[in-house]
Amino acid sequence: MIQNIYAKLQPFKFRLTVFGLLCGSSLLSVVLFRIRTILSGSEDYTFLVWNLFLAWIPLGMAYAASSLSKKRKYLFITMPLAAIPWLLFFPNSPYILTDLFHLSHLRPEIPVWFDVLLINWFAWTGILLGVFSLFLMQDIVRRVFGRLAGWLFVLVVGVFSGLGIYIGRFLRWNSWDVIFHPLDRLSDFVYYAAHPSLQSIMFISVFSAFFIFIYITLYAFGLLFQEQLHSASQEIL
What we know:
globular, mainly alpha
């Protein structure tokens, strides 16, 4: 029985490994948060745990969409139904990086390096959640529309993530505002799009480029890992 389960999971071993690492990183992030809470007697950074939870939502959506799309009859239905809600929640993943702004919550009983490490650990976990989530969605787009469309999708999502982070950090919108207050948010969006500030343009451009660069870099590392596995298998043969 165990061998049968292992055989069924074998094709998904790399995805399961990444999923396990993300769970471990998330758990360690929360442990660090609890250590700080105990040492300082304050829960200044509770929002990090909430933001990390929000970062898991698009990954859950992407994984569900990826699983359904494996059945060809669901492939063309899954993409439009999953893409919009996924895209609305996706900026929550890289958003945690902007929580570095909250280093102003420093306390004398907590070393500066600990707070820097704490926020960066949460931020890095959020970015990795976003990268894995985007990888799953890119794979669906690639299978439906081709490789070029897949990479165009990555670029569009990268720009949208920069826009979403700016909206969340400076305009204080939430992902669910689009659902519960669609007309208000549409009106606000049209106004800010018609009157962009230099800060908004720079922020969105830099963050978009930053996330896209991270994604492409990690994607390249994945290809390098595949090459190493292929070379190792050739040596065995």
